[in-house]
Design goal:
The complex is a heterodimer. Chain A is built from 14 helices and 13 strands. By secondary structure, chain A is α/β, with parallel strands linked by helices. Chain A has 2 domains: 289 residues, Type I PLP-dependent aspartate aminotransferase-like (Major domain) (Aspartate Aminotransferase, domain 2), CATH 3.40.640.10; 133 residues, Aspartate Aminotransferase, domain 1. In chain A, the strands form 3 sheets. Chain A has a 7-stranded mixed β-sheet with strand order 2-8-7-6-5-3-4, with helices on both faces. The longest helix of chain A has 39 residues. Chain A starts with 5 loop residues before the first strand and ends in a 13-residue tail after the last helix. By secondary structure, chain B is an alpha+beta fold. Chain B has a single domain, classed as Sufe protein. Chain: A. Helix content of chain B is 47%, strand content 20%. Chain B has 5 helices and 3 strands, in the order H-E-E-E-H-H-H-H. In chain B, strands 1-2-3 form a 3-stranded antiparallel β-sheet. In chain B, helix 1 crosses helix 2, helix 2 crosses helix 5 and helix 4 packs across helix 5. The longest helix of chain B is centred in the last third of the chain and has 29 residues. Chain B is elongated, with a radius of gyration of 15 Å. Classes of the chains: A alpha/beta, B alpha+beta. Chains A and B meet through helix 10, helix 12 and helix 14 of A and strand 1, strand 2, strand 3, helix 2 and helix 5 of B.
Chain lengths: 454, 133
Amino acid sequence: MVKLPIYMDYHATTPMDPRVLEAMLPYLREDFGNAASRNHVFGWKAEAAVKKARQQVAELIGASEQEIVFTSGATESDNLAIKGVIEFYKSKGDHIITLKTEHKAILDTCKRLERVRQERLDELKLLRLAQLAGQDVTDDNQAELLAKYDVDADETYRKWAELPTGGARVTYLDVEPDGRVSLEKLAAAMTPKTVLVSIMFANNEIGVVQPIAEIGALCRSKGVLFHCDAVQGIGKVPFDVEAMKVDLASITSHKMYGPKGIGALYVRRKPRVRIAPIIDGGGHERGMRSGTLNVAAIVGFGVAAEIARKELPEESARLLRLREKLRKGLTDALDMTTLNGSLEHRLPGNLNISFAHAEGESLMMGIKDVAVSSGSACTSASLEPSYVLRALGVDEELAHSSIRFGLGRFTTEEEVDYVVKLVVEKVRKLRDMSPLYEMAKEGIDLKSIEWTAH
Amino acid sequence: MAYSDKVIEHYENPRNVGTLDKEDPNVGTGLVGAPACGDVMRLQLKISDDGLIEDARFKTFGCGSAIASSSLVTEWVKGKTVDQAMTISNKDVARELALPPVKIHCSVLAEDAIKAAIEDFKKKRAARQTKAS
């Protein structure tokens, strides 16, 4: 008998590997020292443990230990990479290129930088307007003066607007229907002001793996820095910063069977990449990230990285086999299913599938003993389904009908069999009570109906 | 998000799922919502010539709360007159099922479905009377 509940949401987080926890325990007990204490054995022990972990993490991605900056996790790493580059290279340019399917930690960081730039431009515009008008600009006369003087066309203002603003301009590239970026479109989006390309390794919803080596080569040839949010792919698909010419990479421990609250930013040394810190203080992590190191978590992260590196080939083959069993089991038994994103370029443990006419949240309620996730956003106030699926051009109804299955290290074949049987049964039940399925079966084109959107 | 016991009960044992003959002059069909928004509700009412709701059937594409809202109103309208059914409000549905604020639209949809089904029935009857006269 299979043990319930079943966890199939490994993209959200992963349980700690027991070997990781074992390695961490001494650092939560007797070896509690501060890795920055240079004058006693407690500090030395902590420092040695951190050094070892740093090597383990570096080795997983083909980096050297001096290139690893420990952070609180991938969100911080993403913020540090983007804000750090934009600030440090502000005299060089301020243009970022990223994808519409990136994680919110990337998209919202970019949006903030766009706002910073816009606010600065608005400020400059009013300053220039006052100069042109020869009088103070107030709330009362602002509209009138703006109508009178075309500041946007003014040469001085345009010159000012090209000065560093502290913010950035951002291009959010569309992806192809299979979820991958087009290298031609990426190359075409580059301008002389482009300083950074930020493209993820593998997508958290659809598991689609981007052509990182090709992107790296293109960026290197154009003299543009390449940041990769590598959170989802690391430890599942080989990743090598040298072979792939990655300049900055975000990683997190809890997606690879390590503890939460610890991650890293890889920062290339040759050719040297510079970033301005976003957290100031004692100058830890070579000044890039101040704050006392979380030694126990770092030790766990290191062990998790070493296990991931050693077991990657075997584990990814096993996961691929289980994922395919799940996919075939579901698609053989059910009609009107669609796989979202490329099958070929995909994480072995990911399956994102739409069951037309059966709503995702409702399906999750039906399989309540199985933890999965849905692209349906019925619980959010906006009612907007997954922006990632929308960026792929997936129909909104199908986005609402999507389920993401995430398989991982502790997923068993027995669990996969159980989930196939349960999902098939529940999809059928929901379709039996779905007016859309009935209409589709009758051959009615659902697009031809005038729906009353609410 | 946790669902209320009543939502779970209706979701697991939905009442009156099915289809009535939409060509039947005594059947009113209400189809509300939109696939793009993630919920579509179809409510069908069989209404006698003297305005009594004799039967109700639903089919719903949507979350658990949408399914529960539709299931609940089929129970409520059966045996009621058209005028009585018209007084059922989304607030009654939301209260009965203890819907959280983000799910209020499900109860609104259920109210709309009742009104749309009755509207359809009235239209059919009016068309019949025009033809007869």
